[in-house]
Structure formats: structure tokens, C-alpha cells
Specification:
The complex is a heterodimer of chains A (381) and B (271). Chain A folds into two domains: 2-99 and 174-250, 3-Layer(aba) Sandwich (Rossmann fold); 260-380, OB fold (Dihydrolipoamide Acetyltransferase, E2P), CATH 2.40.50. Chain A is 27% helix and 32% strand. Chain A contains eleven helices and 21 strands. Chain A has helices at 2-10, 64-72, 94-97, 114-124, 129-142, 158-170, 188-205, 216-222, 240-245, 250-255, 286-291, and strands spanning 26-35, 38-48, 53-57, 79-84, 87-88, 100-102, 177-180, 209-213, 225-230, 233-238, 262-269, 274-277, 280-283, 297-302, 307-310, 318-327, 331-338, 341-348, 358-363, 369-372, 378-380. Chain A has a six-stranded mixed β-sheet, with helices on both faces. In chain A, strand 1 (26-35) and strand 2 (38-48) form a beta hairpin. In chain A, helix 4 (114-124) packs across helix 5. The relative contact order of chain A is 0.11. Residues 1-21 of chain A have low confidence and may be disordered. Chain B has two domains: 1-51, no CATH class; 61-265, MetI-like fold, CATH 1.10.3720.10. In chain B, helix 3 (53-61) crosses helix 13. The model of chain B is unreliable at 267-271 (pLDDT under 50). Chain B is built from 13 helices and no strands. The chains are: A alpha+beta (381), B mainly alpha (271). The A-B interface holds A 8, 12, 15, 72-74, 93-95, 98-101, 103-105, 107-111, 120-121, 124-125, 168, 178 and B 160, 162-163, 165-173, 176, 181, 184-185.
């Protein structure tokens, strides 16, 4: 086996040693990929800086996994190119790009034990046995796998398998880490734990990373930068807080945040200086009036945490009735029916509300979003 | 009632085992009996004078050793070749599906083999390969290939692609991933397929009869049949040769049993 590895190595002059390149940024340029008639990716461009942790977020089928697999070299694009540290790698084999990938299924080799699984990328590179041993033990130590090295993957729990997959990725120093929804098969508690560990690990190793997920909480917490995809198109990229606070369109606004943003379709009444929708009207500031087209269909967006709720009637507040109230322990999520709309809001845990209880709502004026209804584009802020 | 069912079941199993095993018993004892005892009435079941004369006859008087060697060469070479070529074909068809190609490959097994005898005979004569074991190995390879492709394609399709993709991300070529990750995982399927190929090639009669014209290319099945002559039937020699022909397949089957059961049930249940 060992012999074979080194002889294989001899006929592979193209295989770069791990971490050969110093500065590894990834540039994705106008990437396009079709499957039959469907566009999995369209004109997708993104730069990922050296050491950056980028999260690709979107609903299933939005093209995020296709994008990752194209960067990995497991898929070939129909258009565009991918640069790795300035070098065009679009048509290179995965092994020539020297990236490490963690799969959703973990993809551990079932016929090898944990040690050999972690050692696999090093064996392929024909490294010396004692060197392999040192590196495997280091990676295993780091991920708390030291006692499990003799086990087969099927004898491990989901969390342990996940760690082995991570160890296999970090045992060498690749040009980039690619994560394809690596936490989605774990139970909720473990997922949160691993999420934090992963973030720390990436920070310590400082390796450029792309992380694909459909979980907005993962995206918000993990990424230093966030790219949101929809139908194969990049709709917004930026820091998580930026994307959360200033979503570029209705889709991003609705996708980020849980429970998601309330949307009220209506129009701007310039003469009355108000936004009106059936049963509800909200005063607008001069700045807002300047940016919002008079009379055009506009959608108001407000996040649940920016809706204040009162049990006593208040001047200028919106009257409604409780549709349903859910206790989360640390807070309540309340859905209120007002003016024919269902509006969700967060309240403190102590506020107990019965079905049909009369309540009054106020949208915090500084935290309102306005979108052009036909195109979904953000008009404010 | 329960006891009755149990007894009934045991009887049924005994009957089934008896029907299956009796021919083997008869074959083995026949090969060890003197000619006078072979068809004695009433039959001599156990207390006969055992003799190895028939075994001596086939190996030292007749060239059954050569037939045996020919059979081993033709069967093992064709099995190895069919596995090597068929596995690669099956893997590519599993990963880059071309239904029309797959069907065409299978269709080559749909006509009765006798149909191809005359063209094959002419081709072999033209290639100067008549009466050679090599010709048999090539023919058996060709006839086992579709079978290998279809069996192995099923096994490969069962295997998640993630595994070989992980291997490629770890630095393997596609062939390297096939060799180091995929093939070890379809061992059971490979063993089952190999067993089938081996048995088919080992027992093949028709092509061997046409190709073999002298002892040089004669295999065991043809050799055994040739003991039926115009004037007499050499029952003892035929039985002894039958036992010899059975043994390797029997041993191979026993050695592969663990894999065979897994290989045959692989794909039966998704899991």
C-alpha cells in the first residue's frame, strides 16, 4: 500500500504540495451552469479574500451547492472561470486545486478506520509514515478524537463522524475549506456546539473557507461575509449584520431572520404623507417620502422585534387581536391580526396573551423597510 | 400441532437435501467403484471395494491433467479479463449513464450462443486461433462481459458518489478513487460476479467443443463427454473426471460463501 502510494506520487508531477501557495483568494467570475433547461447558476461573480469565511445562503435548489462543487472542481461550469490565488483553475481536476471539502453526508470511507480516514489525504500525497502519524495525531487531538482512532466510521455517533470529516480536512493545509451543509445532519444541540467550534477552528487556521447552508442562523453566526442566492443568481453579498439590517430585496428580507419579516403590501399617499394599506396607515418621514414614489405599489417590511405590543389602547397605535401566542421560554412570539394582516412580533416572556385578546401595535419608525412591490427591490433604508 | 409442523418441515428439508445431494453421492461412489459393482442390482450403497483405478485412468492413461489445466486457464483468465474490463465499463456507465449503451451491452446476451458459432468459427480460423486455449479465454471473456457490466453497474449505483468525490478532493484521480475507495467497498459484489463468471466459463461446453480439435485445447466438460464413445461409455472415468471438475468450483464457492451471500443480497434492500 505504502509502496503503491509513492509510485503513484512519482507519476503525478502536477499535484501541488499542500499550502504551497501563500496568498489564496478565490475569484469567481461570471459563473454559469445549466442542467438541461434549468439555470443552476447565472452570471455569478464573487471574490473571496485570503482567510475569509464566506457563507453561501439560499433555499434548496438555489444553486449554492452547484457553486461550491464548481469551485471544488467536481462540476464544470458552462460559462465563467474560477481563479485560485490568481491562477485560472476552472478546468483543473479537484486534486490539482488542493482544496479540502466536508460533505453533508461526511463521506467517510467505511472500509477504513478513523486513523486511516484522516491519513487518507496524506497517503495520497505519499508522505512518510512517521510524518503522517504526527499529523494525524495532531488533527485528532485538536478535534477530540484521540481515543477513537481504531474505530470504523459505522461505530461512531453522528457528531464523532462529523469531527472525523473535519479532521480529514484540516490534517493538511489546503488552499481552501469547502463546507457543504456539514452540520445539517446533526441534532439541534450538537449543531449549535459544532457551529461555534467550526468558527473557532477556521479562525485559528486562517484558511479561506466557503460554507454552504440553507440555515439562516448558521449563516448569520458563522460567516464574516454572507452571499445570498436565489434561482442561481447572487442577490446580495455583505457582512451578516449589513445584510440583515439592509436587505437588498424582499427575498433576502424574508429569508433572513426567524420568524421572518412582516410584509404589508400597500402604496404611498404623498398628499397625506403616509403609507396606506387596507386598514393600516403609517406616517412617513420627509426623507422616506423623498425616496418612495408617490402612488406606486410599495411593500412595507418590519421585523418582529421591531413591533411593539401593548395590552392597553394607545394613541396612534394599531388595534388588533391575538391570533396565536407561542411561548419560547425566554420570549413570546405573538401573531396579531390587524387590518386583515397577520403580523408577528416578539414580546417579553412574562406577557401572557389569550386567543382573541385585544392588543395594540406600534412599528418602530426607525426600523421600517420599504420595497418596490413589483420588482421586490429595496427602496428604504 | 407445533411439533407436527416442525417434523413436517424437517421432512421437507430432508427431502430437498436428499434430492440435491444424492447425485453427488452417486457420482462420488461411482468414481470409486469397480466396474462390476457400478450397476449391480440391488445397488451396492456403501460396502463396495473402493478403487482409484478410474482416477489413475484419467490422469495417467488419458490426458485429463491437461484438460484440467486448460479449463483452469480458460476459466481464470477469462474471469480476470472480464472483471477488469467489465468493472471499468460498469463504473463509467454507473457514473455517466448512457441507457442505450447499457442496453446494447445486455442485448449481446439475448441471442442463443449457437447462432454465433459459425461466424466465430470462421473468425478464429482466420486468426489462426482454432484449437487454442487462448481462443476459449477470449470467447468466455466476451460472453461474460455483459454479465459483469450489468452486475457491477448495479453495485456501483448503490454506492454514494460522495465517497469517490471525497477521495478526489483528498487528492486522488478518478481511477485512484475507484481503486482505493470504490473497489474495496464493492468487494462482495466483485466476488459474487467473479464466482458466476468462473462457473459459467468452467462449465461451458458448446464453444469448447467447437474450438477444441485436439487435446491441446480440450477442457474438462468436453473431455468428460468424449468418454462416451461409439462402443462403450466409460462410466467410471466420467465419474472420476466429474468429481475432479466439481472440486475447484466447490472449493471456490466455499471460500467465497461469505461474500456471495452479501453480494447477492446487496442492492436487494436499500439501507
Amino acid at each position: 500500500m505504502r509502496q503503491e502510494a509513492s509510485s503513484l506520487e512519482a507519476c503525478r508531477p502536477g499535484l501541488p504540495a499542500s499550502g504551497e501557495q501563500g496568498f489564496v483568494n478565490i475569484q469567481i467570475e461570471k459563473l454559469g451552469k445549466r442542467y438541461g433547461a434549468t439555470h443552476a447558476l447565472r452570471d455569478f461573480s464573487l471574490d473571496i479574500g485570503d482567510g475569509e469565511f464566506l457563507v453561501l445562503l439560499g433555499p434548496s435548489g438555489c444553486g449554492k451547492t452547484t457553486c461550491l462543487r464548481t469551485v471544488a472542481g467536481l462540476e464544470q461550469p458552462d460559462e465563467g472561470r474560477i481563479l485560485l490565488g490568481g491562477r485560472d483553475v476552472t478546468w483543473l481536476e479537484p486534486r490539482e486545486r488542493d482544496m479540502a471539502m466536508v460533505f453533508q453526508s461526511y463521506a467517510l470511507y467505511p472500509h477504513l478506520n478513523v486513523y486511516e480516514n484522516i491519513a487518507f489525504p496524506l497517503r495520497v500525497r505519499g508522505q512518510a509514515d512517521n510524518e503522517i502519524e504526527r499529523q494525524v495525531e495532531q488533527a485528532a487531538e485538536r478535534l477530540g478524537l484521540a481515543g477513537l482512532l481504531k474505530r470504523r466510521p459505522r461505530e461512531l455517533s453522528g457528531g464523532q463522524r462529523q469531527r472525523v470529516a473535519l479532521a480529514r480536512a484540516i490534517v493538511r493545509r489546503p488552499n481552501a475549506f469547502l463546507f457543504d451543509e456539514p452540520l445539517s445532519n446533526l441534532d439541534a444541540k450538537l449543531r449549535v456546539e459544532m457551529r461555534a467550534e467550526l468558527k473557532r477552528l477556521q479562525h485559528e487556521l486562517g484558511v479561506t473557507s466557503i460554507y454552504v447552508t440553507h440555515d439562516q442562523a448558521e449563516a448569520m453566526t458563522l460567516g464574516r461575509r454572507l452571499a445570498v442566492l436565489k434561482d442561481g443568481v447572487l442577490v446580495q453579498a455583505g457582512e451578516p449584520e449589513e445584510v440583515y439590517l439592509r436587505p437588498a430585496c424582499l427575498f433576502v428580507a424574508g429569508f433572513l431572520g426567524s420568524p421572518s419579516m412582516n410584509f404589508l403590501p400597500g402604496r404611498v399617499d404623498g398628499a397625506a404623507r403616509r403609507f396606506v394599506t387596507n386598514g393600516i396607515s403609517i406616517g412617513l418621514s420627509p426623507e422616506q417620502l423623498e425616496r418612495l414614489p408617490d402612488g406606486a405599489p410599495v411593500t412595507l417590511g418590519v421585523r418582529p422585534e421591531n413591533v411593539e405590543l401593548s395590552r392597553q389602547p394607545r394613541q396612534g397605535w394599531l388595534a388588533g387581536r391575538v391570533y396565536v401566542s407561542e411561548s419560547m421560554g425566554n420570549e413570546n412570539l405573538v401573531v396579531v391580526e390587524a387590518g386583515g394582516h397577520r403580523i408577528s412580533c416578539r414580546t417579553i416572556a412574562e406577557m401572557r396573551l389569550d386567543f382573541e385578546a385585544p392588543v395594540w401595535l406600534l412599528f418602530r419608525s426607525g426600523r421600517l423597510h420599504f420595497f418596490d412591490t413589483p420588482s421586490g427591490k429595496s427602496l428604504w433604508p | 400441532m407445533k411439533a407436527l409442523l416442525k417434523i413436517g418441515g424437517a421432512c421437507l428439508l430432508a427431502a430437498a437435501a436428499g434430492t440435491t445431494l444424492f447425485p453427488f453421492y452417486w457420482l462420488v461412489t461411482l468414481s470409486l467403484k469397480r466396474e462390476v459393482d457400478q450397476f449391480a442390482i440391488p445397488p451396492i450403497w456403501i460396502r463396495f471395494h473402493p478403487t482409484l483405478a478410474h482416477y489413475y485412468d484419467i490422469f495417467w492413461v488419458r490426458p485429463f491433467g491437461l484438460y484440467f489445466l486448460n479449463s483452469v486457464i480458460a476459466a481464470s483468465v477469462s474471469t480476470l479479463l472480464a472483471l477488469a474490463i467489465g468493472t471499468l465499463a460498469a463504473y463509467s456507465l454507473a457514473r455517466f449513464p448512457r441507457p442505450e449503451v447499457s442496453f446494447w451491452i445486455l442485448s449481446t446476451r439475448m441471442f442463443p450462443p449457437i447462432v454465433s458459432i459459425i461466424p466465430l468459427f470462421l473468425m478464429l480460423r482466420w486468426a489462426n486461433l482454432l484449437d487454442s486455449v487462448l481462443a476459449l479465454a477470449v470467447l468466455y471473456t466476451a460472453f461474460n462481459l455483459p454479465f459483469v457490466v450489468w452486475m457491477m453497474r448495479g453495485f456501483f449505483e448503490e454506492l454514494p458518489r460522495d465517497l469517490e468525490e471525497a477521495a478526489m478532493m483528498d487528492g486522488e484521480t478518478r481511477l485512484g478513487a475507484l481503486w482505493r475507495v470504490v473497489l474495496p467497498l464493492v468487494r462482495a459484489g466483485l466476488a459474487a460476479t467473479a464466482a458466476f463468471c468462473l462457473v459459467i466459463a468452467w462449465n461451458e461446453f458448446l464453444f469448447a467443443l467447437v474450438v477444441a480439435q485436439t487435446d491441446a485445447a480440450m477442457t474438462l466438460p468436453v473431455g468428460i463427454a468424449s468418454r462416451v464413445t461409439q462402443y462403450e461409455i466409460k462410466w467410471g472415468a466420467m465419474s472420476a473426471a466429474g468429481v475432479v471438475a466439481m472440486l475447484p468450483v466447490f472449493l471456490f464457492g466455499a471460500a467465497m460463501q461469505k461474500y456471495l451471500v452479501r453480494g447477492l443480497s446487496l442492492g436487494a434492500v436499500k439501507g
